[in-house]
Amino acid sequence: MKKIVSVLLLGIAIFTFAFSSPALAADAASGAKVFSANCASCHAGGRNLVNAAKTLKKADLEKYGMYSAEAIVYQVTNGKGAMPAFKGRLKAEQIENVAAYVLQQADNGWKK
Asked: Which residues pair with 80 in a beta bridge?
């Protein structure tokens, strides 16, 4: 009986993890404010004024391996190329909020 219950519980756990998306504890509304103050000068409307090919639109984020909160947090924190690092300017929570906002906007096509 214990073996059946264990297998059943394992199956439920696998099913739950396989079909659920990871929760992002970040606050996209707060991220919008941080984005507006720090990112919009180069990325207004999801565009990229420095490198037009690498926008914040979903297709480009996916194409360049940036369609995840972890990838965006890393890029914003450390910078890359012409993009400055925000590690000393923004708190980790603010950067996580920006990542949540960017992903939310990318999923919505950057429509307000």
From this structure: 83
